[in-house]
Amino acid sequence: MKYREIIDRYMQLQGFVALQLHAVLFDMDGVLFDSMPFHAQAWSKVMTDAGFKFSEEDVYMNEGRTGADTINTASLAQFGKPATQELIDTLCKAKCEIFDTYPTTPRMRGALELVKKVKDSGLTPMIVTGSGTPTLLGRIQENFPALFNENHIVTSFNVKRGKPYPDPYLLALEKGGFAPNEAIVIENAPLGVTAGVAAGLLTIAANTGPLNPDVLYNAGANMVFPSVEAIAADWDNLLAALKG
Ligand code: MG
Question: Which residues, chain by chain, have CB under 5 Å from ion ligand 1?
Fold first, then answer.
């Protein structure tokens, strides 16, 4: 992958003279934690039990949305009406309860290494997630000790409109005091990629799930890696290109 060409093309499109990288905005599920198989099982079961058609692949295609938006989008598409707040609350609670019966979610392979490399490069790592799963949010510090400042984490509790809207990424820029040419995004989900791109950020995808990589390119990803480990392994070259 010719990093520099990709970066130049991105800058040209955005009208930026230079990238001045200060921050890396990490999505959480499917990037920092290998949690998507569990989310997929839990969401698919809860939605199916409630009368929706919702396969595990549907979960991956909706990944990044808040729980409420996931349910609402399915309700509008399948029943032609928005979901009631009561249904949203019931299903979100049921999903979290099922999720909590699963084994402890492991860190994504290569994630700790990558976040450490980012920090050692003098950059600020931040988290931008559509998640509202307290279990996982509570495990960030234990799994990534002293790497993420509490004020540098955006969750579904902080925004009205989650991914694919750019709002979570724009809020992260605001919280960190960064401009769009000062940060990049690392995402695994098509809607997360859409959100990063809509915020005007260079967006790198790690295809850690079952989707075809073309889905991520079509969502607008500037680069697609096969794993988080692959980004970590080539971080030095990528950083050199990002610094121009
Ligand atoms: Mg994700």
Answer: 27, 29-30, 188-189
Q: How far is the CA of 8 from the centre of ligand 1 (A)?
A: 26
Ligand 1: centre distance to CA 28 (Å): 6
What percent of the chain clears pLDDT 70, i.e. is strictly above it? 100
**Nearest 5°: phi and psi at 223?**
-140, 150
* Residue 79: CB atoms within 10 Å: 11
For residue 73, the model assigns a pLDDT of: 96
Q: Which residues contact 65 (CB under 8 A, 6 or more apart)?
A: 73, 130, 162, 163, 164, 191
Partners of 153 in the beta sheet?
A: 127
Which tens digit of pLDDT belongs to each residue from 15-68? 999 999 999 999 999 999 999 999 999 999 999 999 999 999 999 999 988 899
Q: Is 197 exposed, middle or buried (0-12, 13-18, 19+ CB in 10 A)?
A: buried
CA–centroid distance, 159 to ligand 1, in Å, is 16
Residue recorded with tokens 């955005």:
14
Identify the burial level of 212 via C-beta atoms within 10 angstroms of its C-beta, where 0-12 means exposed, 13-18 middle and 19 or more buried.
Answer: exposed
Q: 209 C-alpha vs ligand 1 centroid, how far in Å?
A: 9
